[in-house]
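Same chain as my last thread, 165 residues:
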Amino acid sequence: METQRDNLEEQALKRFEAIARRCGYEVFKGQGSDNRIVLKGNNYFQFGDLRVRAGTHYVVIEAESAGGVTNLVKYWYCLERKHIAKPMILLHLFRQTTPGDYASHLALWDFLYNRMSDALADRIRATRYTYRDVTDLESAARDFEEHLKTLRSSVNGDGLPRVST
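reply #2:
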């Protein structure tokens, strides 16, 4: 039986999955073995609600139906301990039904990310977005697509950037 949380996250992720596939990327999601950050033994973290390997970076979507910083802390831990080898771009989606929902959690997210970005330098870029329903995710979808297109860029032998479409 699916929970309301699962349904909300699934609805939010559909658009991002379609964008990634349209841009020619394979999408990793869920709890399967191809979407794990392996720690030690049989311990692992899920590597995003949706993840794309985009050349030199991972682009990760985390969709939350409640406030929280657990996923952000997970990436700090994994990047610092080199469980994640490539730099990553995190788009963190938080559902809010009113402007005050989880405001204290979002303030903690901002605080934590500021400290995290200082500690990890160029290994992570993260942006958080809030939405009431999936139609409010326009800016996140545009940013996601822009990241994927930018990361598709490669350098020719003559040193000039070439962008694949």
